[in-house]
Amino acid sequence: MNSKQMKRARAGTLESGDVLVTIEPADALEIKLYSPVINQFGDAIMRSVREVVESFGVTSGTISLEDQGALDCTIRARLATAIRRSFEEEEGVDA
Amino acid sequence: MKRSYLFLPGNQPTMLQNGAVLPADVLIFDLEDSVAPAEKDAARELVASALRSIDYGRRGLAVRINDLEKLYVKKDLEAVVTAGARSVMVPKVNGARTLHHVAVMLDLIEEECGIEKGRTKVIALIETALGIEKAFEAAMSTPRVEALALGGEDLCADLGCPRTKEGTEIFYSRSRLLLAARAAGVDAVDTPFTDARDEEGCYDDTVYARDLGFDGKLSISPHHLRPIHRAFTPTEEAVAFALEVVDAMERAKREGRGAVSLRGKMIDLPVLRQAERTLELARASGMLTAETEGASL
Question: Is residue B220 over pLDDT 80?
Fold first, then answer.
């Protein structure tokens, strides 16, 4: 998947219980996590993020997560959506 | 027994999370009207992820997919069926053809994913004049159909009439849908009450639908769950009588009789069926448990 051209993409929101994921093209892979529960759950969140990133075969890009207390399933879903969008897999608006 | 069907907006994580503690009999994760076109992909991913991860207990789990005229339907079905949704709500069902398409797609997805064929059931949302006219045909189109549900707002827009709290304008449509559902042997689910703040109005509307014969009601607000369940809760007197009826009919059966007299009233199979429905509602509302039922007989 990473052989395709990545573009800037976002998914999620800054509402409570959600997470805003932003992906920027870059030469190397960098993950930035901002979370109010980083001390308690930072490691667990990063484990989930790495799992999703690896499952998509992503090896480069700057991935920023602005967590608003999202559940693990929300973080995984928003990240997956952002990655798909960054590879232009999103469907866009219906005709 | 499925009395309440609560819609949860598919792209709102906190609502999907809250579904695990709300007392709805069925949760409907919505990918259609509550999701903006540009967010369809995100909602699909989020709903699938929630279905895989969150423990919703014994609640029924359904997903309202996008209508068949949109491009998203196959992706919707693939995502939610593989994530474990047991039912899909198909909007704007206008007869058998709509559901044939969905059934074919479900056949393929279940086969590809090693899911037992036919596991995924269908709730057909009827919300047009044509849909009402063809409701029975739709209900009989595939064995996957488990319920017909009425969408009163879209229906009124299609009919060109105002939608009122009294609902006089949809009386005939409600009755037609109910007859179609009963004739096909599937559940009938009433249209949502749309004033989220008016709990008494929702109660009255649910009583009305219950008395027509509906099995349950759609809900767009968690505030409506209590009035819906209250409307479907039988009185203690009705439950006591129903228990007596069942008991009397069991005695009649042992004695080789088809009918029996109870409190001066003839009790036969139709009365028994009504009594069994009352007891089913009593169990759903927690009035009867296996222990209390055993003790009362």
Answer: yes
